[in-house]
Design brief:
This is M48 family peptidase. GO terms for molecular function: metal ion binding; metalloendopeptidase activity. It holds the Pfam family Peptidase_M48. Keywords: Hydrolase, Metal-binding, Metalloprotease, Protease, Zinc. This protein has one domain. About 21% of the residues have low confidence. The longest helix has 34 residues. It is built from ten helices and five strands. Strand 1 and strand 2 form a beta hairpin. The strands form two sheets. The protein has a three-stranded mixed sheet with strand order 3-5-4, sandwiched between helices. A two-stranded antiparallel ribbon has the order 1-2. The relative contact order is 0.13. It is mainly α.
């Protein structure tokens, strides 16, 4: 490659990276429900559409819905109580709560836009207040727009990596690695934010927030000495979460 071609390549690479950063700055907004500034590239309606589109595949991966309409209604009732008594009712999202048939995977998660799930493996270990803690946590993910934030971050790093690769070859791999680490760190922060929101929603709905601590103990016990449940694998250590939950309880108790 001659000197002129090399300069052109560097220029194009820097232009792509600059475009990625400008786009990120232009798409930064404040979450009106949490007050946190976020890089978001989609509307709430798009989040809802993505969640609904992804739902059938998610259900299939976990053996479908648990075949008991009474328990499905119970999970939905607890979830809706949390929504109706919290700021969640003011959001544009369409909340639905689903009990999955999977009796081996201890997990709970939320898709963007309001579709929330819990596996039977976790559900069967919880009382109502503990279930409220788990579902409140998942509602927190929706309100926090965590999935939309991760999607935007992924798009940003994909563009930045392309620019760095064009401009400097192997440096692109470094940028890509930074992107992955950032997403992991943000994910852990998301969990702590959702724990705090879950505590607030429990208190506002008349549930004992200390039961969220019991959920953490259940997750820790389920892990055993070697195995890590999926619910815990990408989350902060339960002991760290317990301390933050205690701080949230002290912060919000008496404010309901």
């Amino acid at each position: 490659m001659n000197r002129g071609s090399w300069k052109i390549r560097i220029f194009i690479g820097l232009a792509i990276v600059a475009f990625a950063f400008i786009k990120k700055c232009n798409n930064t907004e404040q979450n009106e429900y949490t007050g946190r500034s976020q890089h978001i590239t989609m509307s709430p309606d798009q989040e809802i559409a993505i969640g609904l589109q992804s739902m059938p595949q998610i259900q299939q991966q976990h053996g479908g819905l648990y075949p008991d309409e009474r328990l499905q209604a119970y999970v939905d009732q607890v979830g809706r109580k949390l929504v109706q008594n919290s700021i969640a009712r003011e959001t544009p999202y369409k909340y639905d709560f689903h009990l999955l048939a999977d009796d081996r995977t201890i997990n709970a998660f939320a898709l963007p836009g309001g579709q929330c799930f819990i596996t039977y493996a976790l559900f069967k270990q919880l009382n109502e207040e503990q279930l409220a803690g788990v579902l409140g946590h998942e509602i927190g993910h929706v309100i926090g727009r965590h999935s939309a934030e991760r999607i935007a971050a992924s798009e940003f790093w994909r563009t930045a990596t392309m620019g760095a690769t064009v401009g400097a070859g192997d440096i692109g791999n470094v940028v890509g690695s930074i992107g992955q680490n950032t997403l992991l760190k943000n994910g852990r922060g998301d969990e702590l934010e959702s724990d705090e929101l879950g505590v607030l929603f429990m208190i506002q709905s008349g549930y004992n927030p200390n039961e969220m601590i019991e959920v953490m103990k259940i997750l820790k016990a389920a892990a055993g000495p070697n195995r890590v449940p999926e619910f815990q694998s990408t989350h902060p250590d339960p002991e760290n979460r317990i301390q933050k939950i205690k701080e949230a309880i002290a912060k919000y108790q008496g404010q309901s």
